[in-house]
Recover the amino acids of this structure.
């Protein structure tokens, strides 16, 4: 790894949470306006983050923090792989490690809510992993390489050859961001039957780090959308922002579905759409 | 020097077997097993040293014609005894199919080997040829095998204690274990297909003897099932030998491997290769032949560990990988890849519905063997490298995990995953090792995942196979993540117990976990030193290349452009940071800061586990949460029939295609 790459990685690691936090702030603002509320200030996610950091450290067992750190570090790792234009397929697997780490953390405590949230998160992973991997295959069929750097050398935007894969990815994005209608492993409102699901038993610094990881994930996923229109990149960024706005709208207009429904629909429609696209890529 | 080493690899286990059987004293047995373990390590080391020195990456053992003749007849005589013994087992247990299959194997064998009805038998003069693939197998057999045997010292003592035996049956047990190891070593070293068949049959017989070791009704039933299913493979094997001999005029395995490139893929050779693959499928428990391996878990745990990791099932994939260059890129290769890929996804799906720890491991073994066979069928140099690397990683990790489950079972008296809640406080040592072993099976940057990643990247030209691998890896995450979550569950104020394990068990687990870590961290040197020379020496059309340079592994196209790669070392650095963080963090938290979890009501006062709460009506209730098993979708009884039907159909299609070629 050259010095150049190192500098890029460090800048990215510092910049990503700022962008992610701002996006979350915008999300909250827009959501509030959609619900006829005034909403918190744009920087509220950062205030929340620092407040959580300052809280008294309370744990439900001694090991929780380790899983949270695994969750964070591997999310950062996946993000750095994107920034350094590494192997896209391995990036997905690294991202999976990050998710599994949080699941282990949630299952390590005796709380039933946390455990149910973790079980549902596993089901989510089972549903969306194949779609993500198929997306990578689609990218290979267009560019002839698994390296992200080749996407940037590719003349034609991926969106033209992979429209259905793109749609399947957008669908999976909702699951991955745990937004409604797929917010069944954890929810934004603590007073439901699930309490806070996956994150019920995390508090203080731990919760702050989980939020930080979420920002990294958010920026990473936006980056993956951008890949579909990598040249010129500002179009890709616009598409990513538009997609994010769609996610917020969907979040606000839909009610939670059951995880069984989600798994079925994702395996049939999500994998189906991606497969159809890839099959025609094989035939041309 | 070379010859001594070769003989030691085969005859040393045989000698240990004889000693273990005749000497009934426990202390002496410990001495024999310990010394044999060290000697077998030395044998493996000796072969590595010889291989490093040899210029062309092959150790060839040439036999004079007269000596070859004698050894051949000795093996034929032993073969005959073997047939008689298997037939006798069939008669003794009144299992007709075992007897019939023994006779069915005996007839073509006798006509071919003894009476020469099918023409001259072309025994290769180079009786033993050891290349890098053989060397890797020798390392697995002679390093993991003895470790498992050593573990068995402590385990069998407790096992027999639980069974209340009057006379110890350990002498018999250790004897069979050592015969097994010797036969495996011979099987991977010989270049003569008909000799390989003999050692192949010995492993079949040994697996029957080991599975039925406890002598219960179910043990004998499952042992007989293993025997007859593997005899089906044996039958395919002997027919394949006859076809190979007539079509290639040689029984040299090396030449079979190179045969595909020199001649058109027609005639009897494709049929022979397909039959050899089917023999491999039975041994490696691919669908629809999987039931014997699932039944094998009634045996004492060291047997499962041995069958699943370095011996028996690995013999099957060894054979398929060995001959795969001959059918690389052909229709047979594609069908083999489909059989393997299908097994991978089907076994992973069924594993989700299992709560029996050993069964989960068994299905995971079947799935991984499926992936190895799938890689062999894909038929690129990169896929073969993935297959060989997966053989290594899987053997080490799965051997370890079986020993872990055995240890846990002795500790808590159950092999149900749901009973393993809170295991961390009861058996901290075993739990940590088990979790690392499991993580090494499913997450990056550990080796098993890296081979999966390589498989996907190289399978990209075969869409159906690709889809199988992708779905399979998603399902794999589910059953491992559920299990890991359960055993890591901890109370908020756990009282840690000090774990009492016998030295032999503790040593075996520690050594194996060290191997797991070392193999995954050192994947690049491991590949460069042992796998790459083998993959390059295969005669195949595919010219894509895998290199292990810098911090990881890189995939190159024909024009040497990188199209995939992963710097695994970087992520091991992250894992190292986490491992250092664990003790620091757990010491930093003051006990007063540990609070019970939220349980839908006030927590009961004196409950240290954090499981009891005051429910409405002031009743104390306990929280019970179970994992999702989704029996209605992935249940064994739901899927097995259909999966077997589909896999059987594909195999019949495979036979039809090769006969039609």
């Amino acid at each position: 790894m050259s010095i150049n790459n190192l500098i890029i990685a460090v800048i990215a690691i510092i910049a990503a949470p700022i962008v992610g936090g701002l996006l979350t702030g915008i999300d909250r603002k827009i959501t509030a306006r959609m619900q006829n509320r005034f909403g918190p200030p744009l920087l509220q996610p950062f205030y929340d983050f620092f407040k959580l950091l300052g809280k008294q450290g309370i744990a439900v067992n001694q090991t929780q923090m380790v899983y949270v750190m695994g969750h964070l570090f591997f999310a950062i790792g996946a993000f750095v792989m994107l920034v350094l234009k590494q192997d896209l397929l391995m990036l997905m697997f690294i991202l999976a490690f990050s998710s599994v780490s949080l699941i282990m953390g949630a299952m390590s405590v005796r709380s039933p809510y946390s455990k149910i949230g973790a079980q549902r998160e596993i089901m989510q992973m089972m549903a969306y992993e194949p779609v993500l991997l198929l997306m990578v295959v689609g990218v290979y069929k267009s560019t002839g390489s698994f390296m992200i750097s080749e996407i940037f050398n590719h003349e034609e935007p991926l969106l033209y050859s992979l429209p259905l894969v793109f749609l399947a990815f957008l669908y999976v994005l909702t699951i991955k961001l745990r937004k409604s209608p797929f917010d069944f492993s954890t929810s934004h409102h603590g007073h439901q039957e699930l309490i806070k699901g996956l994150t019920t038993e995390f508090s203080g610094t731990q919760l702050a780090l989980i939020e930080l990881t979420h920002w990294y994930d958010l920026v990473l996923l936006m980056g993956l959308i951008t890949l579909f229109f990598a040249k010129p990149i500002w179009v890709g960024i616009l598409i990513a922002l538009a997609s994010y706005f769609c996610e917020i709208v969907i979040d606000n207009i839909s009610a939670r579905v059951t995880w069984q429904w989600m798994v079925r629909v994702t395996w049939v429609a999500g994998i189906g759409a991606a497969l159809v696209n890839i099959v025609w890529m094989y035939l041309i | 020097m070379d010859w001594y080493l070769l003989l030691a690899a085969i005859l040393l286990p045989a000698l240990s077997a004889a000693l273990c059987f005749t000497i009934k004293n426990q202390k002496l047995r410990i001495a024999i097993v310990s010394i044999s373990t060290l000697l077998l390590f030395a044998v493996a080391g000796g072969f590595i040293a010889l291989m490093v020195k040899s210029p062309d990456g092959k150790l060839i053992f040439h036999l004079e014609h007269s000596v070859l003749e004698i050894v051949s007849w000795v093996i034929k005589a032993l073969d005959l005894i073997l047939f008689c013994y298997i037939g006798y087992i069939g008669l003794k247990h009144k299992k007709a199919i075992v007897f019939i299959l023994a006779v069915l194997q005996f007839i073509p064998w006798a006509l071919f080997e003894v009476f020469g009805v099918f023409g001259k038998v072309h025994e290769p003069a180079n009786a033993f040829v050891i290349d890098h693939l053989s060397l890797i197998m020798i390392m697995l057999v002679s390093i993991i095998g003895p470790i498992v045997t050593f573990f068995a010292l402590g385990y069998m003592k407790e096992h027999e204690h639980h069974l209340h035996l009057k006379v110890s049956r350990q002498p018999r047990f250790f004897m069979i274990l050592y015969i097994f190891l010797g036969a495996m070593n011979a099987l991977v070293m010989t270049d003569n297909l008909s000799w390989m068949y003999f050692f192949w049959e010995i492993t079949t017989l040994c697996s029957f003897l080991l599975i039925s070791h406890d002598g219960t009704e179910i043990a004998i039933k499952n042992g007989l099932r293993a025997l007859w299913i593997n005899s089906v493979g044996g039958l395919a094997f002997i027919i394949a030998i006859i076809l190979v001999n007539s079509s290639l005029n040689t029984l040299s395995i090396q030449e079979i491997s190179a045969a595909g490139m020199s001649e058109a893929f027609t005639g009897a050779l494709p049929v022979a290769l397909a039959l050899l693959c089917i023999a491999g499928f039975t041994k490696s428990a691919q669908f629809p032949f999987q039931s014997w391996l699932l039944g094998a878990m009634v045996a004492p745990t060291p047997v499962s560990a041995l069958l699943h990791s370095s011996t028996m099932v690995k013999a099957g994939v060894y054979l398929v990988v060995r001959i795969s260059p001959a059918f690389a890129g052909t229709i047979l290769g594609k069908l083999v890849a489909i059989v393997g890929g299908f097994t991978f996804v089907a076994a992973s799906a069924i594993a989700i519905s299992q709560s029996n720890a050993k069964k989960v491991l068994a299905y995971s073994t079947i799935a991984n063997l499926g992936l190895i066979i799938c890689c062999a069928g894909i038929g690129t140099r990169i896929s073969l490298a993935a297959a060989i690397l997966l053989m290594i990683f899987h053997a080490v990790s799965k051997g370890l995990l079986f020993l872990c489950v055995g240890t846990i079972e002795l500790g808590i008296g159950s092999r149900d995953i749901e009973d393993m809640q809170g295991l961390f406080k009861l058996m901290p040592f075993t739990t940590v090792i088990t979790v690392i072993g499991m993580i090494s099976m499913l997450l990056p940057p550990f080796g098993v995942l890296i081979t999966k990643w390589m498989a996907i990247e190289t399978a990209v030209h075969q869409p159906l196979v690709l889809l199988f691998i992708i779905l399979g890896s998603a399902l794999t995450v589910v059953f491992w993540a559920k299990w890991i979550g359960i055993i890591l569950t901890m109370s908020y104020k756990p009282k840690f117990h000090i774990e009492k394990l016998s030295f032999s068990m503790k040593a075996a687990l520690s050594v194996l976990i060290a191997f797991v870590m070392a193999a995954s961290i050192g994947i690049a040197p491991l590949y460069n030193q042992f796998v790459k020379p083998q993959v390059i020496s295969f005669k195949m059309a595919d010219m894509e290349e895998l290199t292990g340079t810098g911090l990881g592994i890189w995939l190159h196209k024909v024009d040497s452009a990188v199209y995939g790669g992963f710097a695994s070392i970087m992520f091991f650095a992250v894992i190292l940071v986490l491992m250092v963080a664990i003790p620091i963090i757990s010491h930093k938290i003051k006990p007063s800061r540990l609070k019970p979890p939220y349980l839908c009501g006030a927590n009961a006062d004196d409950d240290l586990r954090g499981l009891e709460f005051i429910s409405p009506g002031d009743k104390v209730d306990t929280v019970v949460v179970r994992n999702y098993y989704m029996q209605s979708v992935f249940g064994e009884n739901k899927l097995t029939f259909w999966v077997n039907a589909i896999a059987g159909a594909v195999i019949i299609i495979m036979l039809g295609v090769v006969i039609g070629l």
Notes: Chain A has one domain: 3-283. Residues 3-283 of chain A form one domain. The radius of gyration of chain A is 19 Å. Chain A touches chain B through 63 residues (CB under 8 Å).
